[in-house]
Write a structure and sequence with these properties.
It contains eight helices and twelve strands. By secondary structure, the protein is α/β, with parallel strands linked by helices. The protein folds into two domains: 52 residues; 162 residues, 3-Layer(aba) Sandwich (Rossmann fold), CATH 3.40.50. The relative contact order is 0.14.
């Protein structure tokens, strides 16, 4: 299947914006035609998200550098370490942070993300981090049904429900919630993930969140999140 392309809205004569659009495989349009809701643009030579009221959001590798240090020893790397240099599908890619960590830990990572705008930001983060991720901007079900590709590990990071204690999510997560496409049936995604995983399916949860798909075969827990691991043969 072909990826869905996002549009970046540029000022006339923005050479840097045109170059970045080419690098990230983005369509371009005039900034005067930008929609009111969140849209891609260029701010001080960097990819950014903007709303018509001037609300601006930028997300660069510098914002996450501390998160990806010691990637090889992270809980997510341990959860996905099925074989040496495993081939991993990050099926619900979001901003791509987990995919970058997995790549830095030695995994060969493919990312699927249904929102073209979110996918574009994730591509840009991977470019800034110099991590070799493969991207498909579209629904994971369509990608797997069309490609038939198999992976050592299929990794699922569903958007967490509202925190039971009412804690307000970060601005980055609030924007992701507003942009994310939620048409996928998570149970259906899990079932197709098992068919395309040679070794395991890994599902990320909050540390104390109930399981989504029944009892896992084992778990790896960090300070704030938990990784439920299901053998592919289940």
């Amino acid at each position: 299947m072909s990826s869905q392309l996002a549009t970046v809205f540029l000022e006339r004569g923005d050479v840097r914006g045109q170059e970045l659009a080419l690098l990230l495989d983005l369509k371009t349009d005039d900034i005067q035609d930008a929609p009111d809701e969140w849209h891609l643009t260029i701010e001080h030579g960097k990819l950014a998200l903007r709303q018509s009221d001037g609300n601006l959001f930028t997300f660069s590798f510098e914002d996450i550098r501390n998160r990806v240090e010691n990637a090889r020893w992270s809980a997510i790397a341990k959860a996905c370490a099925s074989v040496r240099r495993p081939k991993v599908l990050d099926a619900l890619g979001g901003w791509g942070l987990d995919a970058i960590i997995l790549s830095m830990a030695g995994c060969r990572v493919t990312v699927t993300e249904a929102s073209p705008i979110v996918c574009a930001v994730a591509k840009n983060l991977a470019r800034e981090a110099n991590t070799p991720l493969a991207f498909t901007c579209g629904f994971v079900e369509d990608y797997l049904n069309t490609s038939g590709e198999l992976f050592d590990v299929v990794y699922l990071d569903p958007i967490f429900p509202q925190h039971p204690k009412g804690a307000r999510p970060s601005r980055r997560m609030q924007i992701l919630h507003s942009l994310a496409k939620t048409d996928s049936d998570l149970r259906a995604v899990f079932e197709i993930a098992k068919k395309h995983a040679l070794n395991r399916v890994v599902v990320k949860h909050r540390r104390n969140q109930p399981t989504l798909f029944g009892a896992p075969h084992w778990q790896i827990t960090s300070k704030t999140v938990r990784f439920d691991i299901y053998r592919a043969s289940a």
